[in-house]
């Protein structure tokens, strides 16, 4: 599978690469959520990043000691954004359904995609997305309602997602694609490692859980982030963000099929509105070339 992410990604067009990454990430998230009762959300996030780092380092062999200060200046922000995004996302899906967490997380890349736009249709997509977010947000506390902290964590993950898109585009122009992902993953792992150790559930790790962790690392990190770096080198941040925002619909279906997470009619409507906004903005997005590094 890493063979696919590394060598075959070089011939895979950027849009299919992003779509494969979306499906892979959500499948990995569903698998990871099964680890939460034993390892905790931070423990599962840390295990995922440790194993993904090992996979990518072994395959791409980035020359970490030979990178310049300018290259590390691109690697470190990318890795920190990636680590915090993973941690807050896992903490969010431990509290709220997968599909709703991804829908809220979508705020980050969606805002990035439409910022500065003056097209009338783009304002319509913003209205659709905003309506969806309003329908999800727990305005009043009541038994059985969404956890407000879970909502905040998902929105935080969304902000980190927007930073990841921006930093990833910069990194892809300074470090070769696979090596940049591997180096960034190491930084992400070091960012999350203190939270993983603080949670203190690693003594519960069994061979079966370790194997599941390998699957999560492959599906959620090694494969999709390599594919995304390939796409980030060819697509504008705006276009990439819109394509990635197809995740709410995919995540909702995955949560329903594999996690038995049933949404209310209003929540389904919210996801549908966000998905329509995503599709509409994709159709109207201007295909801009990646910005050139000064």
Automatic annotation (TrEMBL):
<feature type="transmembrane region" description="Helical">
    <location>
        <begin position="179"/>
        <end position="197"/>
    </location>
</feature>
<feature type="transmembrane region" description="Helical">
    <location>
        <begin position="72"/>
        <end position="92"/>
    </location>
</feature>
<feature type="transmembrane region" description="Helical">
    <location>
        <begin position="209"/>
        <end position="227"/>
    </location>
</feature>
<dbReference type="InterPro" id="IPR037185">
    <property type="entry name" value="EmrE-like"/>
</dbReference>
<dbReference type="InterPro" id="IPR050638">
    <property type="entry name" value="AA-Vitamin_Transporters"/>
</dbReference>
<dbReference type="InterPro" id="IPR000620">
    <property type="entry name" value="EamA_dom"/>
</dbReference>
<feature type="domain" description="EamA">
    <location>
        <begin position="149"/>
        <end position="278"/>
    </location>
</feature>
<comment type="similarity">
    <text>Belongs to the EamA transporter family.</text>
</comment>
<feature type="transmembrane region" description="Helical">
    <location>
        <begin position="98"/>
        <end position="116"/>
    </location>
</feature>
<keyword id="KW-1133">Transmembrane helix</keyword>
<dbReference type="GO" id="GO:0016020">
    <property type="term" value="C:membrane"/>
</dbReference>
<protein>
    <submittedName>
        <fullName>DMT family transporter</fullName>
    </submittedName>
</protein>
<keyword id="KW-0812">Transmembrane</keyword>
<feature type="transmembrane region" description="Helical">
    <location>
        <begin position="148"/>
        <end position="167"/>
    </location>
</feature>
<feature type="transmembrane region" description="Helical">
    <location>
        <begin position="38"/>
        <end position="60"/>
    </location>
</feature>
<keyword id="KW-0472">Membrane</keyword>
<feature type="transmembrane region" description="Helical">
    <location>
        <begin position="123"/>
        <end position="142"/>
    </location>
</feature>
<dbReference type="Pfam" id="PF00892">
    <property type="entry name" value="EamA"/>
</dbReference>
<feature type="transmembrane region" description="Helical">
    <location>
        <begin position="12"/>
        <end position="32"/>
    </location>
</feature>
<feature type="transmembrane region" description="Helical">
    <location>
        <begin position="239"/>
        <end position="259"/>
    </location>
</feature>
